[in-house]
Specification:
Blueprint: H1 15-28, E1 31-38, E2 41-47, H2 51-63, E3 76-78, E4 84-86, H3 88-92
Helix pairs in contact: 1-2
Length: 93
């Protein structure tokens, strides 16, 4: 199954940091086991990937704490019933 199926597993605001990872995983035939949001950050679980892919994942996961999951604008983790990384506009909706 193609790694690209995970593109909609999280909000579209993170698509710009997720898509290159999924494309690299397809190129390497690496297995993406899961993509999700947890504690306000992006989580990508991959197996059989190169060091390059694993480094891309680390960078993306760290960047996700500064990018709104919904719209892709700069954001910060917001605590509520569930921690989400959101911009001011998306947080106020």
């Amino acid at each position: 199954m193609s790694a690209m199926r995970w593109i909609n597993a999280v909000g579209q605001g993170w698509a710009s940091i997720l898509k290159p990872i999924l494309e690299q995983a397809v190129k390497e035939d690496a297995h993406i086991a899961q993509v999700k949001e947890k504690f306000g950050g992006l989580r990508i679980y991959a197996y059989d990937g190169s060091d390059e892919l694993m480094n891309m994942i680390d960078v993306a996961e760290n960047a996700s704490y500064k990018i709104c999951e919904y719209c892709g604008e700069p954001g910060v983790p917001r605590a509520g019933s569930w921690t989400k990384t959101l911009c001011d506009k998306c947080w106020s909706m």
